Amino acid sequence: MPKFSYAKSSPFGSEQGIALLSLAGIGTHLWLRYASAAGGQTYRLSLSASFGPEPEPVFRYGFDAAIALMQFPLISVLVLGGVPLLYRLLAKMLHGDLGADLLAGTSIVTSVWLDEWLAGSLVVLMLSGGAVLETYALRKASSVLEALAKRMPSIAHRKTGEALADVAVEKIQVGDTLVILPHEICPVDGTVLEGTSTMDESYLTGEPYLMSKTAGSPVLSGAINGDAALTVRADKLAADSRYAKIMEVMRASENSRPKIRRLGDRLGASYAPLALAIAAAAWYFSGDVARFLAVLVVATPCPLLIGIPVTLISSISLAAKREIIIKNPAVLENLGLCRTAIFDKTGTLTYGRPSLVAIETDPAFDEREVLALAASLERYSKHPLSGAILKAAEKTALPLRPVEQITERPGQGISGLVSGKKVAITSRKSFIARSPDALARLPEISGGLECIVLVDGRYAATLQFRDEVRADSSSFINHLQPSHLFDRVMLVSGDRESEVRYLAERVGIDHVYSGQSPEQKLALVRAETENAKTVFLGDGINDAPALTAATIGIAFGQNSDITGEAADAVIMDSSLLKVDELFHIGKRMRRIALQSAIGGMVLSTVGMGAAGMGYLSPVAGALAQELIDVIAILNALRAALPPKSLSDF
């Protein structure tokens, strides 16, 4: 779709200024012409120049023109509005980029040549009006890199002895001792020296769980600390830490972001030569240059310049009502052309939270009894898995029992007396360290996370956890090919292979890539995008480069400002149903836009034939084109009306 920017060449500085000037100029002209006696007053402009001896100079030039007062507003429109357009057209011609706006530029030049000021001004109005709509449709987002930089703290708390001082992050040296306060973002990669907390690393690594941190645990820059302070040793400089590396990858991805050719540009590339050919033929066979102008005025591609933006705005409005934010309108034009869908795992096809999926009990214990004891104890714990245990007990309607003598030591788990029984919940590693002989009684290590339950010092059960799969993931994935013509569906995650394979089998995805770093995700998405148009859907900071590299990037949920900046569309409500609605809104938008654009061009072609045969003057042609615009706009406005259904799975 042609898009005009007058900011650097127009004294008014914007498309809105040009549109308002055009309206004011045409309105003033009509008032002077039909409502004011002074409109017909004529002013003469005379210029003469000569060079050389009298009376026979070597060079002589003279200009003499009579201009009616009512023409001055139109001349202002053409000078202040038409000149910036012609400047932009010339720049595009030098780059070999010719589209529908070539007709507009040619129309303006021809109208000035033939003193058809009103026809030329109407063309400027149509173009600037279309540009205003396009500008309104585009929602400018701030730089992804700027958002990444703003997210990171600029100050770190460096500990020297017992003193704590704030220093710039870039001044942190390897070996420095830092204190990360509750809910702060970790400034550098390091190792915990003191304290116990949890950290949310899911946006960086793809691991869906809050990770427990105690002495000896590694921490990543960009991770969000939990409710307790941690003392950390800096292992890397800020410039070498994980978050900085993601920024480097993001910068490379931004510089090579795929350019999507707009629908209007593709249609205009075929329409413009046709219109020029008809105009040239009309001039050639009639010998009347006014027919050339009349054809071009009728041919001015306003169904492309106005009809498509109105359809976009209407579809963007409909999407917003469905909690879908469209940041790049080209998404709606091209979503239906994508043939490869690439999904991140955590937070997209899963909920990004642990779920208790199995209880492997010792034969001497009852599964429900073990779950009731564990849940009763875990309600007093802040461990990331405690919520999953409590939720499982709630689903099975198990009553919680009174607990006494609760103890929770860093790295050792939690213990207490539950209904007179001593219950302890710990890790496999800690349990084997205390009871090496018990290894044979434990089930094999599976994917996901696990914990060990002891009752009165005896092994009772192993609780196994997985990232909870969305209830509609399987049906959504399986309907992509028949409903939206995707040839290839891929699962790409930074999580462990066992977790990713488990999900792929659950939802029906064959192409699986696990343990992928942001750099690897970026390379993979680039390779796939070279073969076919791609859609990438993710929700973490580690997904931002891939979101940018894909043909269309969709950010899922509101977890990260960074992914929102990198994406072309943002699904505010974390629901795959909304993703499907976006696909359908895009398909519907493209259908209605093509109806408005192609229908308008067909009507314009009929008008061009009439103008070429002399039945329409340039001004009449401009008015006919305005009528065609109204028809195209009325059809485009249908896109804002919600259909009966926006989903089919």
Task: Tell me what you see in this structure.
- By secondary structure, the chain is an alpha+beta fold.
- It contains 22 helices and 24 strands.
- The strands form five sheets. It has a seven-stranded mixed β-sheet with strand order 12-24-23-22-13-20-21, with helices on both faces.
- Strand 20 (488-492), helix 17 (497-507) and strand 21 (511-513) form a beta-alpha-beta unit.
- It is elongated.
Question: Distance between termini?
Answer: 32 Å
Largest sheet: 7 strands, mixed
Whole-angstrom Rg: 34 Å
Report the portion of residues in β strands.
Answer: 15-25%
By secondary-structure content and strand pairing, the structural class works out as alpha+beta
Work out the number of β strands: 24
Shape: elongated
Q: Mean pLDDT score, rounded? A: 81
Secondary structure tally, helices: 22
Query: Roughly how much helix do the residues carry, as a percent range?
Result: 40-55%
| Physical arrangement of strands within the biggest beta sheet | 12-24-23-22-13-20-21
Low-confidence stretches: 1-13, 137-144
Would you summarize the structure shown here?
The chain contains 22 helices and 24 strands.
List the helices and strands and how they pair.
Layout: H1 15-34, E1 42-51, E2 59-68, H2 72-94, H3 101-113, H4 117-137, H5 144-151, E3 155-160, E4 163-168, E5 177-180, E6 190-194, E7 197-200, H6 202-205, E8 210-213, E9 218-219, E10 224-225, E11 230-234, H7 242-255, H8 263-286, H9 289-299, H10 302-321, E12 324-326, H11 330-334, E13 340-343, H12 345-349, E14 350-361, H13 367-378, H14 386-395, E15 403-409, E16 413-418, E17 421-426, H15 428-434, E18 449-455, E19 458-469, H16 473-484, E20 488-492, H17 497-507, E21 511-513, H18 518-531, E22 534-538, H19 544-549, E23 552-556, H20 561-566, E24 569-571, H21 576-612, H22 618-636
Parallel strand pairs: 13-20, 13-22, 20-21, 22-23, 23-24
Antiparallel strand pairs: 1-2, 3-4, 3-5, 5-11, 6-9, 6-11, 7-8, 7-10, 12-24, 14-19, 15-16, 16-17, 17-18, 18-19
